[in-house]
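Notes from hallway chat w/ T.B., transcribed later so I don't forget. T.B. wanted the structure written out for a chain they're using in a teaching module, and asked if we could keep both sequence and structure tokens in one place. Agreed to drop them here.
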Amino acid sequence: KSLKVDIGNTETPSSGQRANIGQRIEGQNLQHLRYGTSSAKTMTLSFWVYSNKTGTYSVQVIQEGKYVLFDYTISSADTWEKKTITIVGNTADAIPNDNTVGLYVDWFLCANSDVSVSPTSSWTSGGSYRASTNQVNLWDNANNYWYLTGCQLEVGPVATPFEHRSYAEELIRCMRYYEHSYNDGVVPGANSNI
């Protein structure tokens, strides 16, 4: 399976405009990274991309007003390409140990120059939701498309094979976000009120 962005209309981003696909990760799931300490761990982001538009794209990782921003290149049209990015640990800022967002990971598809900055592998203040100055405009042709799959963010400087989970495992992980309530205390299938 993969996520597909299929362009229908051409667009040139104007001031403040950008388009990105993002993932939010809760801080309580990131405590093993030991951010904010001298033992902050390096991470590796790996993913597969496929597009008819070759060129330079960008991916940004954000942590509470600080970010790292990387370029990656789609070299061959209509070919799955694996990309691997190494992210040094942030020794200066701890990630809150709660269910608020600890890290944002955003893949950019286009951006105006006023929301673009130079890529950097060092944690830098400001610049949240900024694409690289090298970012292509996927919206420059109505026939363009971009696919993303096999995303994995893991501890360490080496990308390991993608961890496939069963449907049952994913369902259990998602259940904590599911809440079901019944109107007026009526249980489905029951003939009386509680």
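Follow-up for T.B.: The mean pLDDT is 91. Might be a good example for the class.
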